[in-house]
Amino acid sequence: MAAALIAAAALAGCGPKETPPPPPTVGVADMEQLEHAHYRYSDYFRLQQEYRNLLAEYDAERADLIARSAAAQQQLAARLDAGDRAAALDEEYRSRLTVRQDEWNARLQARLQEWRQQEQGAVTAAPSAADLEAVNLQLKLRALPLDEPQRAAVEARLAEILAARGGVEWEPSLSAAAQADLTALKAQAEADLTQYAAQVQAQLLARRDEMAAEMAREAQASLLPDGDAWQAQWHERLAAKEAELAALQQTMRADIARAAQAVAEEKGLEIVFSEYRTNLGAVDITAAMTARMATSSQGGTEREK
């Protein structure tokens, strides 16, 4: 076998000489390696990191604002739906009506005393507890917002008192004029309490709405900055950094392109690829371009000159 290989080699050497292949006309260079070799790559890397940091800051701030907004909305909803606030308004409503009702009860009692004195010549007795209770129950039925069980209980008790005095609303011993006068005064009291109840209710509803609006304003003020302004500010910051990064990258690639042109002219290359997939017989000029850029950077780039 060894002899045959030698013979074959000898025979091959005796044939016609092969024409050497033409020199390569295509070059290839590693763009990433060239960018890393550029004298301003440290500036480019710094700008890239600053841009990433800005994006991270934007995402973190946006997430924080979204979380704060959700929490504030929940708190606002809880405040608007709080039972304590509604209960406080309801308690004030009942308290103010009770005060007004007591004032009318006092006037009715005083008028009753006047009629007793006028018709009997002297005060024979203070109004009985049943008399006062009957007046109070009648006013409650006309003025206070009672639910069905409460109203039924009040009506039942009033009917019981009136039945005990023979169905007469006032004392049976009083004259018809006294009965009519007291009944008219009671009707005036009922009309006044009805009007007053509507007035108080309207005031409290207006206050409730104002409280809700004020809480909404406070929540909004403590919530987020103006969404459009905040977004515009961040867009401006990110766009500025992107532009700075793109300008530096363009400068670096212009230097790389000039180096590629110079090396291609020296080596007689027609074209230089930054990457290729097919075997084109290209010559790698990355090292030559790196050396060319290093030489150029010592005295400044051609553009800077």
The number of distinct structural domains comes to 2
| Average predicted local confidence, pLDDT | 76
The biggest beta sheet reads: 3 strands, parallel
What structural category arises from helix and sheet content? mainly alpha
> How much helical structure, as a percent, in the residues?
over 70%
Order of helices and strands: HEHHHHHHHEEH
Annotation keywords:
2 domains, 9 helices, 305 residues, 3-stranded parallel sheet, disordered C terminus, 3 strands, single chain, Protein Binding, DinI Protein, Chain A, disordered N terminus, 3% strand, mainly alpha
Overview of this structure, please?
By secondary structure, the chain is mainly alpha-helical. The chain folds into two domains: 13-73 and 226-298, 2-Layer Sandwich (Protein Binding, DinI Protein, Chain A); 82-223, no CATH class. It is built from nine helices and three strands. It has helices at residues 2-14, 31-37, 41-80, 83-120, 129-143, 148-164, 176-223, 227-267, 286-298; strands at residues 26-28, 271-273, 283-284. Helix 5 crosses helix 7. The longest helix has 48 residues, at 176-223. It is rod-shaped.
